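2.7 Reproducibility. Because tokenized structures are sensitive to small changes in the input, we list the exact sequence used for Coenzyme F420 hydrogenase, including any N-terminal residues retained from the expression construct. No trimming or masking was applied before prediction.
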Amino acid sequence: MRCARDRARIWPRRLAERPLAPRDVAAAGLCIGCGACAKGDEALGWDRFGQLKPVGAWAGERRRGFARVCPFSPAARDEDEIATGRFPDAPERDGRIGSFETAYVGHVAEDAFRAMGSSGGMVSWVATELLRQGLVDGVAHVAPADPDRDGRFFDYRLSRSEAEIRRGAKSRYYPVEMSRVIEEMRLTPGRYAVVGAPCFIKAVNLLSAEDAVLGERIAFTLGLFCGHMKSARLVDSFAWQLGAPIGTVRAVEYRRKDPDRPANWYTAQLTLADGSERRQDWWHLADGDWGAGFFQNSACDYCDDVVAETADIAFGDAWVEPYSSDGRGTNVVVVRNPELRRLVSAAIAEGRLALDPVDAAFIANTQAAGLRHRREGLAYRLRIAPPRLPLRKRVAPGGGSLPLRRRLIYRCRRRIAIDSHRVLVLARAAGWPALYLRWAKAALRLYEALAYLRGPLGGAFRRVGAVWRRKGSDDANHALRHS
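Resulting structure tokens (single pass, no recycling of outputs):
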């Protein structure tokens, strides 16, 4: 009998051509909850793990059109195919960051864009500049929502003024879906820009290719570099650790900026119904190491796009020195659209943007950990845990020759991503937050021992690694002597 891994390799074409239902993708753990598949009365709802998934009768309907617009469908075009069609004349091409016109590092120099954003202010500035110059009539982006009215802390909205865009500044590590704004753009004539994570931008491009109205009206896509997406349960964890009943939380800030501290010293802040605020540095939280994967969406384990390769322009944080120590925030920017290259170049010449040109290697270095997890780590995950649906990935299954510690790190991240949701659900049902918090602290200690070789466990891993390497060297010498 063939194993699941063999079936995924041998039968991808047959399975890819089969009509899919949204529920098929969700059942395979590949639904990111973007909402590209929903329209009209169709809806996404919350599952018990705080993720948005298709709900209702339509979620079980098998249709070929859906398979072409879902970013994780085996029938959808991959990032390389989309980018080749959208940026055929791009002068630069790099396997890590895709096709592009030019790349920069720096920040916005005008007004308060930099101070208001989580990083260098470039996302809000470009969105605002597109409105100022009349290149778009509205910008679809994520902004705070009213949890009492909307049942969530953040949602997509269509902003038509600079003030509305500025209210949506800063990072949002929260599930959102864009079906409502997509329908609004479909029904309302005009030109629009869409801001989103790589998988969302991919979905927008796939939709635009299928829907002529959207293809005409969506003029620009603004991508956000992405490590992975979190579930709504991260807010529950924040509330428990900051001593705030979740029912009293009215606003969440994931990255509160402090110019006097390094940019990568994240601080989480909750605003409560009485107007008071609770905050805590991430490194003091039980689940505060981003790379460990707490509350990660399962689809993120099978994504190979870190830098929004299908977006007209993409933005990330400059996670290298001296920029990562600058608490005011610094962006890296990858420009793929010639019109946006001219827009950015003009603003640099006018002194409105403080950007310096960089090459692909610099951009890749700022995202080295994410790229390693999405390429090397993805190859290993495809080998040990292929999903029930075949995947169309630019990374082949592999990783069998990785060092033992790297393989353990990838396995540990995967278990944390899965079990953090399960344990928190149990803790909520039992009314016992300590159940989750004690588990999270233990899981984080194990992960840090593996990843950073810290503490007694880290020392043990160092010794095991030394024995492992020595054994490998002895085996190699033995093979050479007998070859």
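Residues 15 and 271 are 47 Å apart (CA to CA).
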